Amino acid sequence: ILTSSAVRADLMSRAERIAARANGMVSADEMRNDAFMASDASSTSRSRAHVYTASPHGINAQNKNNVLLKSLDAGR
Based on C-alpha coordinates, what's the Rg of the chain? Predict the structure, then answer.
């Protein structure tokens, strides 16, 4: 179950929703990447996904306003 494709898809869906909410909480940026992005971090023993800051704008927003913590409810 820990490595199934259904679990992996569910985790990525949750991570993408969290990233979308976090991106909605920051002002528009002219950078190439979104401020926050989701990525598959699965290993051979379990499925994982993570949301990370993908630009300096995202780093500043996270440091000042703790945007990722405020966006966690979107993953429910």
Answer: 13
What dihedral angle (degrees, nearest 10) is formed by the CA atoms of 7, 12, 17, 23? 160
- Residue 19: phi and psi, rounded to 5, are -65, -40
Q: What distance in Å separates the CA atoms of residue 65 and residue 76, rounded to the nearest whole number?
A: 21
pTM, two decimal places: 0.91
- For 21-73, the pLDDT digits (tens) are 999 999 887 767 889 999 999 999 999 999 999 999 999 999 999 999 999 99
Given a contact cutoff of 8 angstroms between Cβ atoms, the answer to whether 68 and 62 are in contact is yes
Which CA distances in Å does 42 have to 28, 50, 55, 75?
Answer: 30, 10, 23, 17
Six-digit token pair at 6? 């259904």
